[in-house]
Fold this sequence. Notes:
11 helices
Amino acid sequence: MSFTKSKKNMEEGDTVLLHLGYDNILPIRLTRGRVDQTKYGAIRHDNLMNTPYGRKIQCPKGWLHPLQPTAELWTLALPHRTQILYSTDISLIILQLHLRPGSVVVEAGTGSGSLSHALIRSVMPTGHLYTYEFHAERCSAVQKEFEHHGLSNFVTVKHHDVCDKGFPLDCAADAVFLDLPSPWECVKSAKQVLQTGGRICTFSPCIEQVQRTCDTLREHGFEDLITVECLAQPYSVQTIHLQEVDFGNAKVTGNGSETRPHKMAKLESAEFKEELKTDHGEHDEIKGNTTGNLNAGVDAPPKEHSKNSDPQSDAGSRSVKRQEGRSDLKRHEFRVSAPSLVRQGHTGFLTFASLYLV
Length: 358
C-alpha cells in the first residue's frame, strides 16, 4: 500500500523496489516465508519486514537498498508488456494537460501502466483515471498491479476497443490521452467526453500519424494545436584552471596619471630586440632562399635544423620561459559545461490541443 502514502517501515503486502545498482531495480511484494534470488544472493522477505526503507541490506555477495515505490521508480522497475513512456515525456504530458487533484482523466492504451501511475498520483485524492486497454491479458495484469499498489479507488480499468465503440463514460473529463496506432479514429469520441476547456494529448512515433491526427483535430473544432518532441540533453560539467594573463603593469605617477606601461618598456629592451632580430633573420633567410630557387626553376630545399629544433616550437618555448618563475601570476578556477556526445534517441511526438466549444 506504499504507493498511496509515505511510510517509514516495510510491512507485509507492500510493493518494495530493491535497488541493486545503476539501472537495476527489482520489484517484489513482501510475503512471509518467501525468498527471492538477486545477483548478490538470496534475500529473505522476513528480514525486510519492519525494517526502514532505504536501509543498507547486506546479502551473501553484496548489498542492496529497499526503496519505497514512486511513479518515477516504478517506470524504471515495472515489467514491460509494451513500449512505455518515461519520465521525460510523462512530466510534459502532466504539465500540458493541466492536471491537478480532482481532475478526471481518460486514457486509451493502458499498456504496462507507466503513465497510468503518474496520472493517478496527479489527480489523487479526489480525482479519477479511466483507462481502457484493447488487449485482455494486459488489461488483467495491470488491474492486478493497481490492486496490489492500493490504487483501485482512484482508477477504473476496462477491456474495451475505443476505436470502434468509443468511450463508455458517463461523466465529463478534463483531459484525454491517446496512445494508439491510429489516434485520429478516436478524436470524435474524445470530443464527446471532454468538457469545455478540456485538453487532449496524443502520442505517435511517426510524423505521418501526427499530420493525420492534426487534420482530424482541426476538423472537430480543436484549437491551440502544438506538437513537440521531448529529448533530454545531458551535459558534462568540468573544472578548468587558467593562469592570469600578463599584459604588463602600468606605473602611476604622483599626480595620478599613468606613464607608459611596463610592457612598452619591455618592447624597447635590448633583450627583446635581440630575440626579435633573431626571429626576423631566420624568416628573411628562408624567404630569400625560396625566392632564389623559384627564379632558377628549382624547388627550395627545406632549411636544416638541429635534431631537436623547430622554429615555431623554439619561439613558443622562449615565450613560456619568459613566464616561468612568475609567482605573482594567479591561477583562476572555472566550472564549464559542454553537451555530451551521447544523446537520447527519438521516442515519439506529443500533440496537444484544447476544446473551447463543445
